[in-house]
Amino acid sequence: MMESMPNEASRRARGGWRPGAGRPPAYREPLVRKTVTLPISYVEQLTVFGAGNLSDGIRLLAEYAYTATGTHWLGSLRADP
Questions:
Q1: Which of 24, 45, 53, 54 is the most buried (most CB within 10 A)?
Q2: Range of the domain at 57
């Protein structure tokens, strides 16, 4: 039974934190997790707008929103990496 289990050294050598490993962040600032309550119709439309991702749809809506005077509500739009 002990023969089938990998030894301690091989378990530590795989995975774990490495500099430069992992997916690069999509945003320059940290994202905050919040809970919102939306009507089902909003969820459906925002999910489509976000290409299947509700959070992306909400972020895109905020980024492309205009004020009543025609200026961007959020300020300058972010540049895609």
A1: 54
A2: 35-81
